[in-house]
């Protein structure tokens, strides 16, 4: 049972005639990593950013179709495109977390960064907060490096540490889905390796969708891969099939580096 | 050839810089020499009526302080509005108007406030002075707030929203924090700017020779008194004007330096 079901989803930015996404249908499977690949402008980031409706920060977008999110308790799907109320948005974003391309530590202490989402969710109890912060930092392989300076500013961490902090911050609220928007493209190879390892570990607890320009990365860590081109979903399959045995000519051309 | 041109332009730039700095140095040295010569502890203990400056210093600080109390929150809220909430023409209009207001001649602002806050009430009053200074301050604060917020990357806002925070929470908790040092510096520089203004006060609060905390009447002001004292024939008055100028410059300079120190301290 997929945790998210994208059904015939189309998306148009304001002031643009043609849609940036055309009738995309794609499942995000539970406890799996789904990679979205394709050349720049293919719509993969647009699709990812629709899955927690972060696009709604900038009004005027047009949607069509459905993006269904599984409610783990009731076992029912809910179309997140119907969400209008503030508290439902908060709930959606706590279920579907997001990690950005550039690390985005908030200008506050390491502890407060990780606790931010928890406090938004209404957790005030101090011991519960520090337990959850510790668990999240341990889960993001950052605890050892920062446990003695939790009250120091997060801006003093290295780029790779900042990105792991952002993952800890997203993990702390116990999301069901995590969206990664090119999470390693601003990092050096060693930090990239650490983040990749972390993402693979995280799939035991959450379902993951990741946008990446790095095809080795997609083949290393993902279970499923979706290849997109000019707003269309060209091919979706198990990652090994996409990379070893693509059905579509366009997919083959892209992964062999003939365009893109 | 290129090297010579390079040298020529370098020489020209240094020369023009020296002209500007030379005059500034001249002003500061004159102020220092003449001001310091007339400086005396009693200036801080007596009011103008007794040959001191106490009431003027206090009055100037009260006027500027109250104007800051009105201008800073209004300007900040407006700046946050046009950067974070305002969309399209309306916000653009406010931004343009505020740009124009920054460079509006201060005497015009003084005359404008005179027309609606002095003339109808039968005479100079401190409130009118505060209003005039606030009107000068608000657009400066709007511009600083606006430009400092524009430096905060949009990803930071998105990251806050992505954690389930509402827009106003993100602005309060994250965006303003990220821009805090810049905004504070801008606020201090704006304060320094209005603290030394004469023209907006000339028609509005005028000045007074006596110590006063009553804003309903003409209100003591260092700058306006400098203007008056400098026009007096007696040497003692002009010496007093020099001393007052020195104190005023020192005050403004200190606020400026604190502002600059804060920005540097950040890095």
From TrEMBL, chain A:
Coiled coil: none annotated. Residues 1-255 form the ABC transporter domain. Transmembrane segments: none annotated. PROSITE patterns: ABC_TRANSPORTER_1, ABC_TRANSPORTER_2. One of its GO terms (cellular component) is membrane. GO terms for molecular function: ATP binding; ATP hydrolysis activity; phosphate transmembrane transporter activity. Keywords: ATP-binding, Nucleotide-binding, Phosphate transport, Transport. The keyword Glycosyltransferase does not apply. The gene is pstB. The keyword ATP-binding applies. NCBIfam families: 3a0107s01c2 (TIGR00972). SUPFAM superfamilies: P-loop containing nucleoside triphosphate hydrolases. It comes from the Bacteria. GO terms for biological process: phosphate ion transmembrane transport. It comes from Sulfurimonas autotrophica. This is Phosphate ABC transporter ATP-binding protein.
